[in-house]
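User: Structure tokens for this complex, please. No commentary.
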Amino acid sequence: MAEKPRAKSDGLPTVVKSPTGIRGLDEVTQGGLPQGRPTLLCGSAGCGKTLFGMTFLYNGVVEYNEPGVFLAFEERPEDLIKNVGSLNYDIERLIAEKKLAIDHVEIERTKIEESGEYDLEGLFIRLGFAIDSVGAKRVVIDTIETLFSGLENEQLLRSELRRLFEWLKAKGVTAIITGERGEGTLTRYGLEEYVADCVILLDNRVDDQLSTRRLCVVKYRGSAHGTNEYPFIIDEQGITVMPITLSGLAHDVSTERVSSGIRDLDAMLEGRGYYKGSSILVSGMSGSGKSTVAAHFANSICQSGQRCIYFAMEESPHQIIRNMRSIGLDLEKWVNRKLLKFCARRPNLYGLETHLATMHRDVTDFDPGAVVVDPMSSLMGSGVTGDAHSMVLRLVDFLKAHAVTALFTYLGTGLAETATTEMQISSLMDTWLLLYNRESNGEHNRELYLLKSRGMAHSNQIREFILSSEGIKLREAYVGPGGVLTGSARLAQEARDEAARAVREQTMERRSREIERRKREIAAQVEALQAQLAREVEEDALLDREDTVRKQQLAADRVAIQTSRQTDARQDKAASKPLMKPRK
Amino acid sequence: MTDNEGYTLRLYVAGQTPKSIAAISNLKKICELHLPGRYEIEIIDLMKDPALAVRHQIVAIPTLIRQLPEPLKRIIGDLSNTEKVLVGLDIRPN
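Assistant:
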């Protein structure tokens, strides 16, 4: 027996809850249905009430070891067993194991005559008997309103119903009472008057020929609960309710990065790629390479050993695998290794909400590190535009809460100014890659622009985007006078630049040769001057030596003359004196 | 209908409630008056054997079932409205 009050109790009395084991519903009700109390489950015909009830009982037995009783007013036990057999519920085994009891109450007004007063004690006895026979903790009564058409005395019926619900409470069983939806009221006979603890409304609406099942917890006394309408799906896996909006904005953010799978694109994102758990929008025209960007991402995720789900809305998995092989991506091996899972569903297979619900379940089951939705835009076509926006919002929230990196492709005009729908979605996205398909000079060329990427210093450049057999290459931005150049315009510009460079190089070469020549010339001049200088110094030294020799010669001569003319000198002296005298 | 046929009647009650007691006495009165000597009444207390409630599809208490003659007829209530009991049991009043 599972008595799990999931709400936090701080000494205050809280409603004890019985988990339904129905995916999503226990989240919406924060733990399940009020234990030991009846819950009213209402909805129009064919919206899944009986199945809901049976699932509640089946899960009760199988998952929580709580036996159950199904009191059927409408379907015979064998029909019931057959109907839920499609969900792989082995009801017969549970009955054989005395874990489940089904009692079919047959009431046909035409066969019954009423005479005087009566009560429904027989019903109580039967229910009590069934509960005791299996030790039931859970009871489903489907649909007790049949009594109103089977019996005349409505007043008596009402008082008996009131008594029944009180009796169920006294028994302490967790009960689901189903009721047919009435005009303007929750149930045709106003059962909500008696079952006041918890009311759940099921709905099956058809928009644009696509039906969507929805669940809403109208009332839950003494407990918080999600109040929105949540889509739910019924398929071979049972019932799944989608409480996506519950995830809110409180999710943890990661600083971890994941590669985009394109080296050049990673380089534009600080060299490290997207943030883990972020949402990436890749928008562009048809043929601009959106799927290729997506496939690279998926490939890279698988390469890193993580799982990835590829939601293919327009192409079949085989087609995607084949196409990507042509650019050198082998996605098939990841599929074989169970790292990549393709979920291919046509957008008009069912309504948006159902798409969302199945995606939700796929993600929960496969637990991927990343998902790709290709293309998102085809989903926007089904349902009302507002719905689509809310769906994306919930999907993004849900994926973020699970730290799943999500890449959405979007078929649009590829121009930021005119992309109104993209604008609406883009505010939910962390990174927005725009792929242009620009026509110029008679050719289309692909361009990629990183319009935004929250929380990182990303490149603001427009790159040329080239698909080759080795995958995507982003070429450096080539900005000419007319903007970014791509394709042959780029080649022409490159050629022009090359020519200009050659001319520049030649000029440079010429100049350096000139300088070299001048240098040599000057060096030669310096050499000549030095030689001249040396010559002059030598000459000077020669003259010096000649002079010395002459001086010595002169001195020697003078000595010789003096010696030879000693007397003469005296004579000269004497003679000179008289010459002087007369002057005095 | 033939007057020669015998009636097998089963009355389902749940304990000794006023309605049950009233039903038993009302039934006996009607039978004595209209079916003297050709009726058989079996009173089944579901409190003692609740499984019979399931097997015999009993919802309301008291319930009177005409086992014989065929076909099966059901009347619910304390049988205070004799007119309806006679219609229900297909008995033409004497």
